[in-house]
């Protein structure tokens, strides 16, 4: 996938990839909590919510509102505030106690569909409310807010009083450098989560329109749902932590507590190569599928879509920079040590992600090798083992460094192959990056831009006791367009033609 924007192209400021994120889930729940205080008849539920928060020492509006709505009955109270002809009730004598919350929530959903005529695709599912996915709960919040909007238009809500509006934050004319860092961290985190939500919306649309089947969608988006869920949960904790007094904040510890969740980044980042390939293959369908203007912008060009897929990697690289700046504003040794540990944790995730990307490149190299060899004879590529590295390296044959040649090495679990431009014995050729100790078994193949003295297929029969390396003295670099691969079988070396590509070094784990 093209990652670079075409020269001379200026991306519009209102482009979806440049757009700032809206309300976070934390902010949405905090605002919803205030709005619920304006709903007639909701007072008992508010009192119950506050008592439960105090007992559990919960200061998280997401957990507070989520737990309240899961009770089911508050949802019926919200709908009954619209003054329907038949208020919602639940005959508890016919429903077991542990089933009542879900039964009440189902009545709310049914009433919204039938009485308020909400489109089914805009309604949450029971699993969204009672599951553990923050993405599902976002649907719940949106639907409840929509009912409250109807109540507001009908004039059914209480007017908010000063006592219910919550504490007024003291305005500051100038933020400290530390506050600027935290402000940027939170705002950019909200933007990042918003970008992931856009990517998930695209995934849903492509699946619903049939533009992508299940396999293609998984190959492109992989663990996006899990990554978004973690990102939303981490943002909730960041905003909750930021609401604490400065002397109670420990940002390093926050990152340390979520170190396992950051592992969600590794497979998503490592999937970039496959994602690019599938997007390119399915681009015509992807480009034509979206129906909403925002999603159409996302697939306006390949580079724009790619910009969303690289957001997780970009975000991961930002954390150490911001934490380092935050560390400079901390004079307490314990807090500084925790931030240093947090930076190490993020760096470890980055290292693992880079390693995973490298492995994907190696897998692609194996696939490329299997397609370029016309006839593997009796060999099975799947039995070669794990590929360690590939590339073109310079081999120094003399102390002066003037006598050099290029080498491509293929090392398998069960045998080894060495590619050299000259006829040196493989055991005597020093290498860069891989030592001769990595080799074991017979020298098995030769593959580089080396050719026979005469063009065309040739068969060489090594003399008794000679190694393949000594036979290579009969080969010198040539101008043939085909690359040659030779392997021994039953005492002879036969020719395999490999389609020309850039010179590569291939090395399997020994």
UniProtKB/TrEMBL annotation:
Any GO BP annotation: septin ring organization
SMART domains to which the protein is assigned, alphabetical: RhoGEF (SM00325)
GO-annotated molecular function: guanyl-nucleotide exchange factor activity
Domain DH intervals: 177-356
GO-annotated cellular components: cytoplasm; division septum; mating projection tip; nucleus
PANTHER family linked to this entry: CELL DIVISION CONTROL PROTEIN 24
Name the UniProt record assigns to this protein: DH domain-containing protein
């Amino acid at each position: 996938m093209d990652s670079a924007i075409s020269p001379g192209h200026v991306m519009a400021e209102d482009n979806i990839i440049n757009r700032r994120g809206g309300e976070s889930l934390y902010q949405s729940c905090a605002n919803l909590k205030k709005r619920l205080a304006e709903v007639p008849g909701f007072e008992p539920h508010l009192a119950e919510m506050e008592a439960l928060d105090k007992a559990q020492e919960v200061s998280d509006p997401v957990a507070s509102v989520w737990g309240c709505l899961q009770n089911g009955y508050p949802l019926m109270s919200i709908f009954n505030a619209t003054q329907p002809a038949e208020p919602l009730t639940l005959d508890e004598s016919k429903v077991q106690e542990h089933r009542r919350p879900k039964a009440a929530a189902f009545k709310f959903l049914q009433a919204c569909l039938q009485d308020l005529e909400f489109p089914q695709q805009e309604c949450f599912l029971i699993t969204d409310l009672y599951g553990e996915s923050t993405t599902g709960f976002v649907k719940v919040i949106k639907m409840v807010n929509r009912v409250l909007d109807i109540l507001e238009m009908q004039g059914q809500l209480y007017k908010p009083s000063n006592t219910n509006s919550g504490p007024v934050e003291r305005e500051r004319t100038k933020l400290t450098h530390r506050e600027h860092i935290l402000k940027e961290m939170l705002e950019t985190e909200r933007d990042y989560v918003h970008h992931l939500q856009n990517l998930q919306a695209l995934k849903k649309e492509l699946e619903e329109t049939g533009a992508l089947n299940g396999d293609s969608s998984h190959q492109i988006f992989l663990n996006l749902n899990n990554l978004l869920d973690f990102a939303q949960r981490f943002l909730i904790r960041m905003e909750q932590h930021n609401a604490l007094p400065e002397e109670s904040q420990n940002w390093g510890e926050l990152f340390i507590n979520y170190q396992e969740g950051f592992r969600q980044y590794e497979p998503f980042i490592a999937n970039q190569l496959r994602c690019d390939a599938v997007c390119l293959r399915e681009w015509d369908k992807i480009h034509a599928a979206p129906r909403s203007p925002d999603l159409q912008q996302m697939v306006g060009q390949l580079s724009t879509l790619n910009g969303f897929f690289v957001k997780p990697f970009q975000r991961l690289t930002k954390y150490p920079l911001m934490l380092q700046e935050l560390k400079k504003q901390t004079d307490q040794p314990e807090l500084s040590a925790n931030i240093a540990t947090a930076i190490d944790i993020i760096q470890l995730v980055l290292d693992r992600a880079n390693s995973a990307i490298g492995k994907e490149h190696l897998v692609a190299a194996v696939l490329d090798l299997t397609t370029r060899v016309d006839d593997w004879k009796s060999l099975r590529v799947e039995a070669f083992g794990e590929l360690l590295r590939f590339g073109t390296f310079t081999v120094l044959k003399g102390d002066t460094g003037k006598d050099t040649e290029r080498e491509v090495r293929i090392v398998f679990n069960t045998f080894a192959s060495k590619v050299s431009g000259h006829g040196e014995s493989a055991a005597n050729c020093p290498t860069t990056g891989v030592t001769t100790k990595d080799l074991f078994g017979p020298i098995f193949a030769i593959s580089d831009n080396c050719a026979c003295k005469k063009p065309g297929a040739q068969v060489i029969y090594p003399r008794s006791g000679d190694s393949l390396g000594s036979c290579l003295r009969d080969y010198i670099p040539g101008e043939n367009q085909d690359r040659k691969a030779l392997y021994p079988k039953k005492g002879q070396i036969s020719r395999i033609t490999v389609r020309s590509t850039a010179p590569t070094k291939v090395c399997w784990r020994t």
